[in-house]
Amino acid sequence: MDLFQDSRRQNLQRVAPLAVRMRPQTLDEFVGQQHFLGPGKLLRRMLEADRLSSIIFYGPPGTGKTTLAQLIAIGSKSHFEQVNASAVGVKEVRAILDEARQRIANGGQRTVLFLDEIHRFNRAQQDILLADVENGLILLVGATTENPFFAINSPLVSRSQIFQFTPLTEPEIRSLIYRALADEKRGFGALKVDIDPKAIDLWAVMCDGDARRALTALEVAILSQVKDQQSLGIQIDLNTAEQSIQRKAIVYDGIGDEHYDAASALIKSMRGGDPDAAVYWIARMLEAGEDPRFIARRIAILASEDIGNADPQALVLAAAAYDVVERIGMPEAQLTLSQAAIYMATAPKSNASATAIWSAMKDVRDGRTIPVPKHLRDTHYTGSQRLAHGTDYKYPHDYAGGFVEQDYLGVDKIYYQPTDRGCEAEIGRRLQSQRHGGQQTPNPQDGKVSNKQTGSSQDDMRRQT
To answer: Mind listing the pLDDT tens digit for each residue in 198-233?
Structure first.
């Protein structure tokens, strides 16, 4: 035994940050993640049954991934190895695996390999772990802030249980702060600290669910005045709390999960008719540095996909919003995006136009190709009459109401089914009348020349160009 081991451990603990010193020493002290660690939940059951397989912890910083990995090693009486994937290569990993093999051979002790930022391992490096993970030689605990289904090899994912960590709640953060204030050995229980509950509330909000940030703020607030006021007692008010924590950084990856999740939340909020949620998600994305043009594009897509002809003005406004955002940029673009999103959220909704084109596209891809009916074919070239193109075409403007019933597709198929919402209700009534036989009486046009043989200018667009 090393006679100085305890002394060295105490010295290291003395200089360690509060967040490190306050790490729970048992599962019962662990705060948060009760959706998989609470009584009767999956990870708790696996630990109690001693049937833990390799696992991947996925979630934001400061939620307990490293701490839980250490507790698993302690609970399973395993040797604990912690490495960061960005700091080791194939050689170092092979050495850890060889030592793990020797450890089992000599005494039967398993090794918990905590591989932080496992997504930083390339595919070849991850493949090295496969055989030993599958054989149970090591208990791999990988930690990542990125979606493992995209960032980690599929074979390694399939051999591991995935647990998604969530940010700690405000009550959970408060409990950690009060625990640090009361603990005399690891925290500040030996000091006289008078703290305003509003200061704790501020940290619980500003830390954004990151326990490390909250405890660091507490440590800064106390240590910044401990030398001068230890005998008088330490006072932490709301102003001190504000000065002890930095402005929160929005966790947001412009090409990762946060980017797509926030965009999805924005779209679903507008689709669901919640302008308040829509504005919040726009603010969240802009504050994190999202390109405002990306948001404008999402709004424009929604205008056609989810509003459509229930309010045709939505697409006009979305196009104008994109143009304004493109021209003026931030910070003024936030005003335009807010206005457009609120309009979309409160507009009547219909996806009839979207489902019409989706259904038609599917038929084009999967079904038999429908030839253009002869009476609809182009007649603006010599010889078209010999092919009987355009024969029997009825020019709608020659009929009262500008409508005449005739076949425009060649098959009996309905793609567009208008709803009874907004402007689409009137479109539906008009279309219903036409589909069931509208006005077909010839119109003499008061001596005007009919275009039914020559066609409209739009029909002739191809020839002009």
So the answer is: 999 999 988 888 899 999 999 999 988 876 555 567
Residues carrying CATH 1.10.8.60, the chain: 170-243
**Cα end-to-end span (Å), the chain:** 92
Compute how many other C-beta atoms are within 10 angstroms of the C-beta atom of residue 338. Answer: 17
Q: Which residue has the tokens 């607030």?
A: 221
Assess contact for 152 and 126: CB atoms under 8 A: yes
Q: Does domain 170-243 have CATH number 1.10.8.60?
A: yes
Structural tokens at position 145? 């802030």
Task: Of 299-308, 380-389, 434-443, give the range with the top mean pLDDT.
Answer: 299-308
Q: Structure pTM?
A: 0.62
The CATH number of domain 257-346 is 3.30.70.930 = no
Among 101, 83, 102, smallest CA distance to 93 is for 83
pLDDT tens digits, 163-181? 999 989 999 999 999 999 9
In CATH, which superfamily holds the domain spanning 32-164? P-loop containing nucleotide triphosphate hydrolases (3.40.50.300)
